[in-house]
Write a structure and sequence with these properties.
13 helices, nine-stranded mixed sheet, alpha/beta, globular, 9 strands, single chain
Amino acid sequence: MSIQLMMPFYGDVGLFREAVASVIKQEDPDWRLVVVDNRYPATEHVEFLEELGDERIHYVLNDRNLGIAGNFQRCADLASGSHAAIIGADDVLLPNYVGRVRELAARHPDATLIQPGVEVIDGDGVPSTQLVDRVKSWYRPRGRTVELRGEDLAVSLLRGDWTYFPSLLWSVEFLHAHPFRTGLHVVMDTLAKLEVAYSGGSLVVDDVVAFRYRRHRASISSVRAVDGSRFAEERALFAEAAERAEALGWRRARRVALRHSSSRLNALTRLPAAIAARDGRGLGLLMRHAFGSTRSTESAA
C-alpha cells in the first residue's frame, strides 16, 4: 500500500522546500507526492522539483486559481489508491510519518481517518504551544491508539476539534464520496470529519508523534476569529450538527452541539481584540456567538 501525499501549494517557497525535503527523508520510501499548484506567480518551486528528479514526485498546475478551499478539493479529486493525506506546503513530516500511518492503516483497515501524533511549531520552526493547542490537548482522546466512531466521534469533535487536518490520513474512497464544502473558510474540515461519524466511519488517533504542524499567527482562522466571521461559520456548523444528531437519535451529540461551550469561550477571548479594533460588526458577531442560542433551523450549507 503506497501512501499518497497531496500537497496544495500557493505561498512561501522556502517553507515549501522544507516540506518537500521532509517527504524525501521518509524512512519508508513507498510514497507518492503530488504537488497541486494553485497558479502561484513564480517558477522557483517548479525548478526546485525538476532539480530533485524524483520520480515519486508529480506536479500539477491548475487551470486557474481555485482559492484555498477549492484547491483542497482539487487535491481530494486527484487522490488515488486507498489512502491519501492532504499535507500543508509549510508543514513538516517527521521521518516516521509514512511508516507509522501505513502501520496504523494495516492494523485498522476499515478506518476512514487516521490521526498520528502531532508537534506544533511556530513560523520559525520552533516548538510552540499556544492556547488553542493546549485546549486541543484537553479534548484529545487519551491512550496509545484509540478508535472512535458514530456518536462518540461526533461528541468528541463537537466538544472541540482536536485534530490537525494536514496530518490526517484519509480513505480515498471517502474523499471521493464526500466532497468538501468549498464555500466555507474555517469549518470545512470539521464538517468533513463529522461526516465520517454520520456515515458510519471511524477515526483512529495515535500518540506516536510523526508530524510537525506549523501554526502562523496571521492564519485565516486567526484573522477571522478577531472579526467574528469564524464564529458565524461555527454557529451554523453547530446548528446543522444538532439537526443531524437529532435525526440519528444521538441525544448526547445534540446537547453538545447546542451548548458548543469551548467555541463560546473562544469567542469570549476574542472580545478584547475586537473592542481594540473598534470593530462593531465583529463585536456583535462575537457576542451573539458567545451568549446567543443555537437554532436548529440554521444551516452550515
